[in-house]
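USER:
Before I trust my own judgement here, I would like a peer's view. Write it directly below this note and I will take it from there.

ASSISTANT:
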Amino acid sequence: MGSAQHYSGLPRWVFVPAAAGALFIVLPLVAMGTRVEWSNFFGLVTSESSVAALKLSLRTSAMSTLLCVVFGVPMAMVLARTGFRGQPLVRSFVLLPLVLPPVVGGIALLYTFGRKGLLGHSLEVLGINIAFSTTAVVLAQTFVALPFLVVSLEGTLRTAGQRYESVAATLGARPTTVLRRVTIPLVLPGLASAAVLSFARALGEFGATLTFAGSLQGTTRTLPLEIYLQRETDPDAAVALSLVLVIVAVLVVALIRGRSVRGSGGSLL
């Protein structure tokens, strides 16, 4: 009843472009579903190369999500809880991968960690080669997924405010104790949603991975890369694998949305 009252003030014409926008998103997915060879779906998605790509994607996405949490949580806290000269510029650079074409990010990573890169040359002297390795996949995924965690968690922190943290500080709690006992538990639902969102972005990463890590089966060929290659040689397998990614994405969005409805505050969804 409350929901109906909330939307009762909308003019009827608004529903027309809204429905058109929904169809624009849903219709291509339905069209893809009609092209799936359902009788052989299981066989298409369980080929050796497909399974290897899926396992690699899940493993590297989990690792990149961990890196996003390790680096993204402190970054979001600094941006949300402090003020310093040049902060808007810093925030702009942190969020830059959100708007950069992924292939540009891959080129930037290549010129940083590649054999002749800014850091890669020194790392090669130490016997560490990152480009075109599984590590490169993780770094590429982290590069594009990290801003999603930062922007989502920063919003959660700003929504939560600092009232409870201030009370804890006045009672004599040390900053680390306040962070561990107050701040983290307060934003934990939002952090979980942000981490899941970063995982989903990492799972679907293509451009930066291809540019920086290449496409070596079992080493750097993630599921999006496998779909791209299968599109040329086996279109049925490409469609089936695409559907697998769509299903995973739907589950991720549903999970984030469920957490948001239960009160995650400043998450993106």
Observations:
- The domain at 42-261 is CATH 1.10.3720.10 (MetI-like fold).
- The chain is about 75% helix and 0% strand.
- The first helix runs from residue 2 to 7.
- The chain has a mean pLDDT of 88.
